[in-house]
Amino acid sequence: MRAMAGAMAGAAAMASPLRGRVRGAKALALAERARHRASASSSSSSSSSSSSSASDAAAAATADGAASWERFYRVHSGKDASSSSSSSSSAPRAASVRAFKDRHYLRREFADLMPASVLADPSAWVPPLTPSSLPPPETSSEDHKVILELGCGVGNSAFPLMRANLNLFVHACDCSPTAIASLVANPEYDARRCHAFVADLSEEDAPLRGVIGDASVDAVTGVFFFSALDAATFRRVVGECRRALKPGGVVLFRDYSVDDVKNGGRARGTRGKGGKGGTRGGGEGEGEGGDGDAGGLDLTPGENIGGDAWVRPDGTLAVFTDETAVTEAFHSAGFTGECWTVTHEVVNRKLGVTIVRSFLQGRFVK
Ligand SMILES: C[S@@+](CC[C@H](N)C(=O)[O-])C[C@H]1O[C@@H](n2cnc3c(N)ncnc32)[C@H](O)[C@@H]1O
């Protein structure tokens, strides 16, 4: 049976007293303990104790997510990793950070945000933004929408969306000051179209209140963001989405699916020789902190901490999300809508295999 303990279904158990207190590296220690307990016994009392230990590990990794992700972006900005263990030790680097690929496929996948001209041919190239020569967004246009992008990183989702709809306005937040500094330093950054700010959404005292008004945005987007949260935090953020959205507004997200090969251990979901070709689709999630083991066919992201939750070697959390549990979390917060699984094939020429990736995509309406 697929254990749900590490993912969304264990929400109640994850409201642990350790939440917010157990920090950083302890996540990996807790993960180790959970793993030992899980393998030591198959009795129901032991499995419930290992499940709460796994929950504690997920909560600890979420609580330390801001520090772990800041370290991740500093490393990817070329800053010496060893001098970056404390996120407050020096100012964030406003350098270009290349951690992920631009997610141009969102033109097709987040259709709610696109003008008719883009929907007619979502694969057509759109030019980069040129703040010095572009007119301001037309707030009276029917394409004008205000978006809140959660966990925006350096803008690999936000910029492609803003390019494709010149009438969008994006509030983009992330817990990493280095990521936000890099986004703002991007030559495409235009304060008329984007407001980027640092916010740690794992904090319990409504980190977006005072920045994002009630019922003020048309859409909330999250691209490989929700997987960074343990179940209790996930539910709290869903509540925050509801607060921020206008009636009829939508949450659009894409994230890891429980069915993904990276959640399944050695070589599941791979086949044969890849032959010619390259990566198809967006390359979602590729290149994340220490994700995968390119030297063999162990594609898992790091240390399994129970169920479908993993802690990567850099301390960041990856929860592979479950369609039923995610839908339940949104519906119980008062949303309607659904999520579904999408797959695409990635040809890994080095390993000579074709890897089938599975992602979860969702559209929930307030
Ligand atoms: C896999 S990256 C995806 C970045 C971006 N959405 C994209 O499309 O490339 C996950 C992002 O979520 C951010 N994140 C993780 N936990 C967060 C938290 N508690 N609050 C705010 N942002 C968070 C990380 O800093 C990181 O930028």
Can you give a write-up of this model?
The protein is built from ten helices and eleven strands. The chain is an alpha/beta fold and 366 residues long. Helix 7 (158-164) links the parallel strand 1 and strand 2 (168-174). Helix 2 (26-40) runs antiparallel to helix 3 (44-63). The chain is globular and about 55 Å long. Residues 65-66, 69, 100, 103, 151-153, 156-157, 174-176, 179, 199-202, 223-225, 228, 288 line the site of S-adenosylmethionine.
Annotation keywords:
single chain, 366 residues, 3-stranded antiparallel β-sheet, 11 strands, 20% strand, disordered N terminus
What is the chain-wise order of helices and strands? HHHHHHEHEHEEHEEEEEHEE
Largest β sheet strand count, sense and barrel closure = 8 strands, mixed
What helical percentage do the residues reach?
Answer: 25-40%
Number of helices: 10
Q: What does the average pLDDT come to? A: 80
Low-confidence stretches: 1-24, 33-44, 83-88, 274-295
Task: Please outline what is shown here.
With 366 residues, this protein is an alpha/beta fold. 27% of the residues lie in helices and 20% in strands. It has helices spanning 11-14, 26-40, 44-63, 65-76, 106-109, 116-120, 158-164, 177-185, 231-244, 323-332, and strands spanning 145-150, 168-174, 194-198, 217-223, 245-256, 270-271, 303-304, 309-311, 317-319, 336-348, 353-365.
